[in-house]
Amino acid sequence: xxxxxxxxxxxxxxxxxxxxxxxxxxxxxxxxxxxxxxxxxxxxxxxxxxxxxxxxxxxxxxxxxxxxxxxxxxxxxxxxxxxxxxxxxxxxxxxxxxxxxxxxxxxxxxxxxxxxxxxxxxxxxxxxxxxxxxx
Length: 135
Fold this sequence. Notes:
By secondary structure, the protein is mainly α. It has one domain (3-134): Four Helix Bundle (Hemerythrin (Met), subunit A), CATH 1.20.120.330. It is 81% helix and 0% strand. The chain is built from five helices and no strands. It has helices at 3-29, 33-54, 62-74, 81-99, 107-134. Helix 1 (3-29) packs antiparallel against helix 5. The longest helix has 28 residues, at 107-134. The protein is globular, with a radius of gyration of 15 Å. 36% of the residues are buried. The mean pLDDT is 93.
């Protein structure tokens, strides 16, 4: 993959992340909580895919992307452990709220997940900007 292709892919993934954050915010405002959790998680997931694109790493599975984020970015100290915890918790809650029959979600919980997703995406954007500036 050429440098231009990598840049285009990570820009696309960050666009998906921002769009998912916007959707999560709108859904939370309307108290559509399951969908808001889903979009908050996907904002984080797309941000991880942007990071993996820069590293020229790919995976088709959510668990694989999360694992690569932990090993390539958290364990190496590029992102704090909070980022890993937020991603794992959002993934777990998204799984339960999408597939379990009766998972109660409060507006407060939705707001926390959204706030963490926003911080996560902003952290990834900042990291990628610093990395791009250094090249």
